[in-house]
Amino acid sequence: MNAFEIYQKIDPSPISDMFLWIRENDRQLYKSSIATLTANRNLRPVFVEKKSVTEQITWLHKTLKLKTSDTIGEHLFQVYFMKGQQELLIRFCDGLGIEHDGEGSVEGALPETLDDEKLKSTIDSLIEAHDSKLVTLYLWIFNLQTPNGWANLAKTLESDERLILA
Asked: Is residue 166 part of a domain?
C-alpha cells in the first residue's frame, strides 16, 4: 500500500492530529505542503490559506488521497513520526532490537526480517501505550520503508482487528 492509499483508507482523526502538530511545530513545512499541493492542482496557495484550519486540514487530507500526492504524503508521515512521535519510534525499535540513535532514527540498514514474537509483543506494547489508530498508521508507514515491506508485518496489519486503518 502506498502513502496515497493510506490517506484514502485512514480515519481522518490521526491525519488531523498530524497536521495540527505540523502546523504548530513546523510552520514552514505546513506552508510548503500547502504550496506544493495547490501547485499540483493548478491553484494558488491563498485558495487554501484563506480557509479555516479545519477546512485546510480537510482539503490537505483530500488532496493527499490522490496518486500524484504520494511522495509528499509519505514525506509528511515520515516527518511527523520522526519529529512528533519519537517515543513511539523508540519503543518500536527497542522492541524489535533495531539499532537507532536514541531518537528513533534507524542506524544502519533496516533488518531483512522481523522476528514474529518480538513483532507481536512490540505491537501489543505500543497499543497499550498509544492510540491504536496512531500505531496502525505508524506500522503501515514503517512497512513502506523497504521494497515490498515485511511479509509478517503486512500479514499482521491485514489480520489484527486492532490495526484497522478506518
From this structure: no
Separation of alpha carbons 89 and 107, rounded Å: 13
* Backbone CA torsion sign across 86, 58, 132, 72: negative
**Mean of per-residue pLDDT scores for the chain:** 94
pLDDT, tens digit, 9 for 90 and up, residues 109-144: 889 999 999 999 999 999 999 999 999 999 999 999
Domain membership of residue 8 as a residue range: 3-84
Q: Is residue 165 part of a domain?
A: no
pLDDT per position as a tens digit, 18-30: 999 999 999 999 9
- Distance (Å, whole) CA 113 – CA 103: 22
Amino acid found at 150 = W
